[in-house]
Amino acid sequence: MHRETLPPDSSLPWAKLNNIELNGVKISQLGKSTGSGVIATRELSADNAVLMTIPRELLLSLDNVWIYAKSDHHLREVLEAVGAYARTARGAILIFLLMQITSSYIDIPIKIGTSNPWTQYVKFLPSEFPLPTFWNEAERKLLDGTSLKPALEAKLKSLDREFTHLRDSTKDIEWCRYWWDSDVGRLSIDDWKIVDAIYRSRALDLPKTGHAMVPYIDMANHASGEETVALYDTDADGSAILILRDGKRLKAGEEVTITYGDEKGACEMLFSYGFIEGNMHGEDVVDDVKSTREIFLDIDIPDDDPLKLAKKSAFDSPPGFRIFSRDVDCEWEGPFVWLLCVNEEDGLSFRVLQLNDGERELKATWNDIEIRGIQMLETCLREDPLWDIFQLRAIISIQNRIERQIQDQEDNKDYVEEAQNGKLSISSQSLKAVEDLLNRELFFLSMAWDKFEGKKTKLLNSNAVQEYLSRASTNEEVEVEDFS
């Protein structure tokens, strides 16, 4: 559906009508590539100065969506038809946004929905989003070898499932024929991607409220660390407020920024907001590593593991691990990795119990101790005399996975070069973002591999590993593990 848009800097009458209080700031159009932003209209220097106050009834939260539904029977029909999904913040807010776009769509001959402040406010939001969910197939192919590729594929499948659920749940509602009918229906998966992009790129985790969209505060751009100018919070009345950080001073015309999350890595920033903070070509390598922050890599149990199916059935854990930076060091976490590191000969076993109702249940044990969850398995491994052996196996599994990821990047180099030479249908903005992500992740993965190599060497020299290898070498029936 075509959505009417208005310049964000024309929104002041709307803000005044809805009792938004502005103190020394305004919304301004910063440029075509940058979009809108919050700008100081005078010198700002008072500590904890409240720059904005947004009344609580304007906050787009799960609770407020259902409050709107009390006076909007079209919205209520959709929320109730969709079921449990509409009882989540994401589900309720996306459906609400879709209803506001539908309400203002001029080609629908009947009035759908009840007008509210957000019916007008969505017109001030961008018409286009640089998020990877909108990239074409050629642009998505650039992501081969990055941690964003599997995340994007999973997201696109999830969006399709949500959209299909919405259609199946509402197709029998009379007025929804203007969404789904083959002749007059106007709704497509692209519309669902739009409301998803609005939500993901603009929702805040607001104290005392939870995930919500906050008009006007959501116009503020991102800056991390000491560059963050203002913080958002909730006051005693439940209204959202934007507060100048202690010690910050701004001149008239300077930008007021917030943080979208200092802990978010390069992949997540590109995924959710369409940009990566910083410049990989700068001189400060430490800051570049910090800006990458983390990478999640998927990993699976080898097919030749006789306990593979049992491990996956007994332990519910995401099949992967997270590598994250700590200053200039690297650490990893991901309990699923331990399932690659232990087997029956180490003390892990499974048995099937027959329950009273006739059902069967798979139980895991470690040296005859029942294991309830993968965290308990990790605790048992830590207390085992062979803990250093298990750590060594984990480090090697992680290094092998890092090597495969780096090789995937190498295998995709020719395709990236074609894009750089202008031979593919790829936007310059997408290409630049991918180049930045590839450089950052390659640098980060290479550094992580080196750090883990040092940890591996230390473990190899530990008494527990040396004694284990010595015993294995003198036992002809035991195959000596290759830890090289």
Overview of the molecule:
The N and C termini lie far apart (58 Å). The longest helix is centred in the last third of the chain and has 33 residues, at 428-460. With 484 residues, the chain is of the alpha+beta class. It has helices spanning 12-17, 62-70, 73-82, 89-103, 117-121, 137-141, 148-170, 177-180, 189-202, 266-273, 285-292, 308-314, 338-341, 374-383, 387-411, 413-420, 428-460, 463-474; strands at residues 21-22, 25-31, 35-40, 50-54, 204-206, 210-212, 230-234, 240-244, 255-256, 294-298, 320-326, 329-333, 348-354, 360-366, 369-371. The protein has 18 helices and 15 strands. The radius of gyration is 27 Å and the shape is globular. Mean pLDDT is 91; it is low at 280-286. 43% of the residues lie in helices and 15% in strands. The strands form 5 sheets. It has a 4-stranded antiparallel β-sheet with strand order 1-4-8-7, with no helix packed on it. Strands 2-3-9 form a 3-stranded antiparallel β-sheet, with no helix packed on it. The chain has a 3-stranded antiparallel β-sheet with strand order 10-11-12.
